[in-house]
Amino acid sequence: MPTEPELPDQATREEIAAAVLLWDHLAAFAWGHARQSGRGALLLHRDQLLTAAERKLAGKTFPLMPTFLAAADIPRGDDFRPRIAAADPAQSIMLIVARAQDEAVLLELQTPGTRPTPPACFELWTECMHELEA
Prior knowledge:
Helix content: 40-55%
Strand order of the largest sheet: 2-1-3-4
Distance between the termini: 61 Å
Number of strands: 4
């Protein structure tokens, strides 16, 4: 008998909502690094993620610099490694959210038709950076 998929807890739902709100920024960052280092995941602390989302909602700047972990650098045997290695960086981003007390959750955020793909985000982000420099 098939089992029901496990629903995310409140904390995970908050992290997903924040990541979706910051999709363009996170996808651009992930895609840019994936082009250089191959498949991998972004690492952010929960507080950083939620604060950046709150600031974006308030119309404020949100400095957000995740760490990129290349799949090859993730230790063998880590539960996240196979999922990160299997993800398609052109269609999804892998986000490790670090929580308190050595706890982390891996979110795979895929691009449905309503969000630009990571490559398109990278192009948009690059254009914005050029405009800011001018």
